[in-house]
């Protein structure tokens, strides 16, 4: 069975003006095998926060931009560990396509609420996969003239990369497995798992 591209296909659009309501199909039977424990994630988040705090030690205020929806748990834990003045904002991007594939055409469906010109920005992503979405988003944000812009990703799948982009800080490098938990979903399920798990389809 093909694995869903759940980092790039962040919702489906069928026109250039407005997204249609996605059609939900029942997920095939599957199990989730633990890959990274909640304890391991928590320790790594603390390490990442220390590195980020050190890097932005002279910031007036760090704008932490979460890429919806998969990053919401990660960003919540990360910002609570940062010893910096922080503002949080969110951006949602969508690749045209269905739940299993991505056309690599990235569109912004929810933009930032605030301005970032002249400010320090940290983009927080759940998974760097092919890199198309993250590349598009960072290029867009750089056109808004931030003082500094860095990237922090919870997970990285380098074997899937099609665009030359890397996060400044990465939590875990993982193989090409379909993962869920800690904010990451499969068909809007399993976001609330406290760990990262590998999906194993049954049958």
Describe this protein's structure.
- There is one protein chain.
- The protein has 203 residues and is α/β, with parallel strands linked by helices.
- It has a domain at 37-178: Rossmann fold (3-Layer(aba) Sandwich).
- Helices cover 19% and strands 30% of the residues.
- The protein has helices spanning 38-55, 72-81, 132-142, and strands at residues 30-36, 62-68, 86-95, 106-110, 120-128, 148-156, 169-173, 179-180, 196-201.
- Strands 4-3-2-5-6-7 form a six-stranded mixed beta sheet. The chain has a three-stranded antiparallel beta sheet with strand order 1-9-8.
- Helix 1 (38-55) crosses helix 2.
- The protein is globular and about 55 Å long.
- The chain starts with 29 loop residues before the first strand and ends with a strand.
- Residues 7-19 and 96-101 have low confidence and may be disordered.
Question: Count of DSSP helices?
Answer: 3
Helix content: 10-25%
The helix-strand sequence is EHEHEEEHEEEE
Rounded radius of gyration (Å): 17 Å
């Amino acid at each position: 069975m093909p694995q869903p591209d759940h980092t790039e296909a962040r919702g489906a659009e069928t026109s250039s003006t407005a997204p249609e309501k996605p059609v939900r199909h029942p997920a095939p039977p599957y199990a989730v095998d633990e890959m990274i424990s909640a304890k391991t994630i928590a320790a790594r988040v603390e390490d990442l926060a220390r590195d980020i705090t050190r890097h932005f030690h002279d910031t007036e205020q760090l704008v932490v931009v979460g890429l919806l929806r998969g990053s919401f748990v990660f960003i919540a834990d990360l910002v609570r560990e940062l010893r910096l003045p922080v503002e949080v904002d969110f951006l949602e991007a969508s690749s045209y396509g269905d739940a299993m594939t991505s056309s690599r055409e990235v569109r912004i469906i929810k933009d930032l609420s605030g301005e970032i010109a002249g400010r320090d920005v940290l983009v927080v992503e759940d998974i760097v996969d092919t890199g198309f979405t993250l590349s598009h988003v960072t290029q867009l944000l750089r056109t808004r003239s931030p003082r500094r812009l860095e990237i922090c990703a919870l997970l990285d799948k380098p074997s899937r990369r099609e665009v030359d982009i890397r996060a400044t800080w990465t939590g875990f490098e993982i193989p090409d497995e379909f993962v869920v938990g800690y904010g990451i979903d499969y068909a809007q399920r399993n976001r609330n798992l406290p760990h990262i798990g590998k999906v194993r389809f049954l049958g």
